[in-house]
């Protein structure tokens, strides 16, 4: 089998998601395409030849040679400050992928889906939501998206737009919007309880969040083999 | 030749540390796994080695505790790019577990509570290169990190160090495991940067 090559990726579009996160759209000549939920490796090289790599989830389904990432700033990180604050339209990085054949949703799958996002764990789940919409899939999707505060939500306008069959619920752990019924707090079983456990679940976020949410799904009667998880540690920026 | 990213200078920091290509140093201990964390009671925990001839060797938790253990200090390299150096473990060497196992098999498939599998050549488990570990940093290994016991094969990427390990099947033929059938490299040597199929 052929080695996945590093490809030159040029930044062609930027969208600000929050004060600390932005979506980067790259044009990657030769890109072979990808599935919703997969990730890519990004490599940065300095003038003296030093280079470093990180993995980022892709935020949108396959769209020709475009690869869209949403990157959250990790203050003491090495790569995310560059990607969120320095990289400009026309600048180049290198991308290798796609990677990961497990945490993916395929449009031909018709089973109902539960998406559980913690913080920037929303990114690969957004790729799934967009893939569903683009494919005209009728698989019912339910998103539970946990953030610390209201202004930390990614893709807010898009998730507020009508998308029949997609149900969106927010959990605020620190501070809620005014008049919000659920008090601020971490994810709990009532947040995840629903009519059926006959669903595919995708859980993505920091380790503690994923541990809690997956344990709660198990306790609610979900089968472990239908819960797919993706975790990221506090480092990795 | 890699292209240079304008305005990127990088952070060398701990410059005298030698890491495998493409890895960066971390001091915390990230967790990666594909599904929920299984919880296994020690009363029903067991570890087995099945040979290619159909012979089964079995250890209860008490059996494992009664075996001589080692306390290796190991460098860990995860395919997701982080490396963590000088981690302290306690566990039983696979050499001890294999002592009475008669086999001519060349391949091993480690399997876990929760259904995870990973494959590697049997020789990579022998001669002081692998352990069934049950303590990390002096404490019982917690479930998110693979407790009560996990395989440790530190010279390969960490996905080969199966968490919640339940047994090892010895085989004449190579049988790709969970990540090995999902696009990751069959062998996974971090020093050769064998991350994905074809690397």
Automatic annotation (TrEMBL), chain A:
It comes from Acrocarpospora corrugata. GO terms for molecular function: 2 iron, 2 sulfur cluster binding; oxidoreductase activity. Keywords: 2Fe-2S, Iron, Iron-sulfur, Metal-binding. Residues 4-105 form the FAD-binding FR-type domain. It comes from the Bacteria. Its cofactor is FAD. Pfam families: FAD_binding_6, NAD_binding_1. InterPro entries: Cbr1-like_FAD-bd_dom, FAD-bd_FR_type, FNR_nucleotide-bd, MRET, OxRdtase_FAD/NAD-bd, Riboflavin_synthase-like_b-brl. The keyword tRNA-binding does not apply. This is Oxidoreductase. Gene3D superfamilies: Nucleotide-binding domain of ferredoxin-NADP reductase (FNR) module, Translation factors. CDD domains: FNR_iron_sulfur_binding_3 (cd06217). The lineage of its organism: Bacteria, Bacillati, Actinomycetota, Actinomycetes, Streptosporangiales.
From TrEMBL, chain B:
Residues 35-179 form the Oxidoreductase molybdopterin-binding domain. SUPFAM superfamilies: Oxidoreductase molybdopterin-binding domain. InterPro entries: OxRdtase_Mopterin-bd_dom (IPR000572), OxRdtase_Mopterin-bd_sf (IPR036374). It comes from the Bacteria. Pfam families: Oxidored_molyb. This is Molybdopterin-binding protein.
């Amino acid at each position: 089998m052929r080695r996945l090559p590093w490809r030159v990726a040029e930044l062609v579009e930027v969208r600000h998601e929050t004060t600390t996160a932005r979506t980067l759209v790259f044009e990657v000549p030769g890109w072979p395409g990808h599935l919703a939920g997969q990730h890519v490796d990004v490599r940065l090289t300095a003038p003296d030849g030093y280079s470093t790599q990180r993995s980022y989830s892709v935020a949108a389904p396959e769209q020709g040679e475009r690869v869209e990432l949403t990157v959250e700033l990790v203050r003491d990180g090495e790569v995310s400050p560059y990607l969120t604050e320095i990289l400009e339209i026309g600048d180049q990085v290198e991308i290798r992928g796609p990677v990961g054949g497990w945490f993916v949703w395929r449009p031909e799958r018709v089973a109902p889906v539960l998406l559980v996002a913690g913080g920037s764990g929303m990114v690969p789940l957004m790729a799934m939501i967009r893939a569903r919409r683009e494919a005209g899939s009728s698989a019912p999707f339910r998103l539970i998206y946990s953030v610390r505060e209201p202004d930390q939500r990614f893709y807010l306008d898009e998730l507020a737009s009508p998308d029949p069959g997609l149900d969106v619920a927010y959990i605020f752990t620190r501070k809620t919007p005014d008049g919000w019924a659920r008090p601020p707090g971490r994810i709990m079983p009532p947040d995840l309880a629903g009519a059926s456990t006959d669903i595919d679940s995708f859980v993505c976020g920091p380790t503690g969040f994923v541990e809690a949410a997956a344990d709660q799904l198990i306790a609610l009667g979900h089968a472990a083999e239908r819960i797919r998880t993706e975790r990221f540690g506090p480092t990795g920026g | 030749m890699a292209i240079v990213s304008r305005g990127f200078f990088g952070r060398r920091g701990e410059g005298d540390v030698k890491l495998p290509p493409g890895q960066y140093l971390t001091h915390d201990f990230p967790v990666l796994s594909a599904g929920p964390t299984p919880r296994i009671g020690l009363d029903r925990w067991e570890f087995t080695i099945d040979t290619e001839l159909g012979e089964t060797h079995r250890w209860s938790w008490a059996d494992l505790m009664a075996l001589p253990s080692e306390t290796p200090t190991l460098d860990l390299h995860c395919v997701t790019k982080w490396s963590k150096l000088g981690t302290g473990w306690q566990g039983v060497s696979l050499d001890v577990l294999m002592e009475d196992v008669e086999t001519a098999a060349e391949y091993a498939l480690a399997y876990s509570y929760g259904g995870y599998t990973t494959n590697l050549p049997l020789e990579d488990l022998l001669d002081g290169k692998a352990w069934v570990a049950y303590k990390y940093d002096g404490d019982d290994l917690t479930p998110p990190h693979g407790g009560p016991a996990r395989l440790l094969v530190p010279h390969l990427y960490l996905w080969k160090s199966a968490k919640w390990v339940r047994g090892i099947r010895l085989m004449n033929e190579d049988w790709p495991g969970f990540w090995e059938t999902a696009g990751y490299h069959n062998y996974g040597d971090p020093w050769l940067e064998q991350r994905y199929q074809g690397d």
